[in-house]
Amino acid sequence: MGKYQTKYEKLIANEPVLNKRAYNIIKHRIIFDQLHPGQRLSVARLAEELSISRTPVAVALSTLERDGYVVVYPQRGTFVRELTPFELEIIFHARSALGKLVIQSAGHLIDRSELEVFYGEFKRFRSMKYINNADLMELFYIDVEFHRLLDECIPGIIHDETKVIADLTMNSRYLAYRSRFGGASDETIKELCCDHHIQIIECLLKNDVEKAAEAFVTDVECGWKGTKL
């Protein structure tokens, strides 16, 4: 397990507020295909697995319904929701538009030292001759953390809504990474996963937020196409 995956999973597991911890863990399982579309979720079973009472789990499931991860059918129960291709397309378009606005409005506030760290990471992967499956999954978590950095420069309430949209793209992006983008070549994978991020960072380091925003849109559009390979 790479350091970015470790960091991501620690943030989920160490949340002190129980209903938020339950929300994070259940959402994580949905995103990473441990809970599947159409699968019925039991409050009692989840509470037992998470070693917490049923109330935080029930609250978490209610929030997950609001955010688009589960659906509740009266008299039947709560099930993992499957997003339709049309819904996913709209979500990716919304992600693109919001991210562009974020960079245009607040890109100058993003920490330069952190940008340089991510620049080094993407350059490192770009220079690899071969990318094995473990490398690719670490690159996925770097991708996730990089986009979180971009979103952190905006006010809290806007950040929270942007995060909901961004996270809804994660399952399809994870599955694309896991399948190596439908068996794409290493060179294609490096183009999809590294080149646009490198361009975003280079533009931000030059304080060219307009070009950075354009590169972000290209990145998200390629991400959407990558989920369909």
From TrEMBL:
InterPro entries: TF_FadR/GntR_C (IPR008920), Tscrpt_reg_HTH_GntR (IPR000524), WH-like_DNA-bd_sf (IPR036388), WH_DNA-bd_sf (IPR036390)
Domain of life (superkingdom): Bacteria
Domain HTH gntR-type: 16-83
One Gene Ontology molecular-function label: DNA binding
Keyword vocabulary terms for this entry: DNA-binding, Transcription, Transcription regulation
SMART domains: HTH_GNTR
Signal peptide span: none
Full protein name: GntR family transcriptional regulator
Organism: Candidatus Lachnoclostridium stercoravium
Lineage summary: Bacteria, Bacillati, Bacillota, Clostridia, Lachnospirales
